[in-house]
């Protein structure tokens, strides 16, 4: 078994070095920059609108009866779609992943996570817009969407002749690649989450580590199996309950730790900005060695940033595509908020927690950069330092819950990717294929609890990079379409009489326009009643 894992590690290391080299770094940043230009810096100029269209109305609607369409299809609410997507992004990539990035890439890696997130906001926005625009309604009422769909259907655009034929073929190839890599990325992502759940309990509980890991793996697998059988509706409901609770508890405790060490905040920020280009241990490096370390800092920051917020992967849009909303841009705004919340809030908080707790030279050397240091243990120590046993208990609760909701979300992403790959085999063939995937996914969770943590990270990073490649190529080609759909929505918001761009398919577009009219009429009817009640 050890030899097999050694071979896997060697092969993965070789692929990872290529996948996360400078070409990928340039492609990730370049795509974000291109989309920022084509949408006129939408993530900046419409940042307030993204809040006004997403989290603000959601908070206001709590406890109120929802108006609008009757649920004829197996869709979920916008918030449930967001909660499912955010549960897929807010996981160990935020807590343990940020710690791992600092340990291997230095504090400067945090800066590159911010850079990744700034451009990632508009990248995720574009993915959601395309995801809803090219999603398809299945016979059973489900909505299917994601990179596999908008790549295979959208690349040809309005082109003609040989160009159209070439782009159509390229789109089909990229769509299949996206689905295949997403399937493996789902397994890799769940592997990291399960591995970190087991590591957390191994660090917190006495006893044989292998036994603890096995028990954790079995428990996670059983609970996972019970929930995934319910499909996206079940996953959405669980995520909508757990994500707000976990996030608020984590934010509160992180803020307490940061302000309890307020004198170290300036030092922590200085460490981040002083080490943008180099690792602390090799700050004096020159020539090719310095360039290699500069690349490493950026690589770790971007890789962990993408792992954390998933902008560029196209994965979260699979959940967003199941939303009941008819407006692609509205769901796109959730993508902007999602990346902001994931990286600029959650990831920044954990980075500051680590750096204010261990930011002095001695702690960095003896704890963070020590040989054999484990990211999970280092993160837990930051909570233990201030809260003691209570901190250990809360950390041992929050991290597994974050990780588990991520496992849930990625089970759906993998299932929909397998469904896409077998869509031409008929309903029966698709059902058999997705059932086989679910069984394997659950069983591999047990295996993941037992393998080396660094190997789990490395495998997941590789498949994330492979999944991002076809998606980013597609986003570059379809950036003009994203800009047109965005302009169409904003023009309509200004009162201009333009035909809505809600779906790429004429019949579905007409149906969505009719649905939108019903929604607007219901909203107008509800508004006066609400005003009278308040009066």
Task: Describe what you observe in this structure.
This protein is mainly α and 535 residues long. The protein has 2 domains: 2-60 and 77-504, Amino acid/polyamine transporter I, CATH 1.20.1740; 505-535. The protein is built from 23 helices and 2 strands. The protein has helices spanning 2-19, 22-38, 42-45, 47-52, 55-60, 78-89, 96-105, 108-133, 147-154, 161-204, 209-228, 231-260, 265-274, 287-309, 316-320, 328-358, 361-368, 375-387, 389-421, 426-448, 453-477, 479-493, 506-534, and strands at residues 136-137, 143-144. A two-stranded antiparallel ribbon has the order 1-2. Strand 1 and strand 2 (143-144) form a beta hairpin. Helix 6 (78-89) runs parallel beside helix 16 and helix 10 (161-204) runs antiparallel to helix 21. The radius of gyration is 23 Å and the shape is globular. Mean pLDDT is 79; it is low at 65-72 and 280-294.
Q: Secondary-structure blueprint of this entry?
A:
Layout: H1 2-19, H2 22-38, H3 42-45, H4 47-52, H5 55-60, H6 78-89, H7 96-105, H8 108-133, E1 136-137, E2 143-144, H9 147-154, H10 161-204, H11 209-228, H12 231-260, H13 265-274, H14 287-309, H15 316-320, H16 328-358, H17 361-368, H18 375-387, H19 389-421, H20 426-448, H21 453-477, H22 479-493, H23 506-534
Antiparallel strand pairs: 1-2
Helix pairs in contact: 1-21, 2-8, 2-21, 6-12, 6-16, 6-19, 7-14, 7-18, 8-9, 8-13, 8-14, 8-16, 9-10, 10-11, 10-19, 10-20, 10-21, 11-19, 11-20, 12-16, 12-19, 14-21, 16-18, 18-19, 19-20
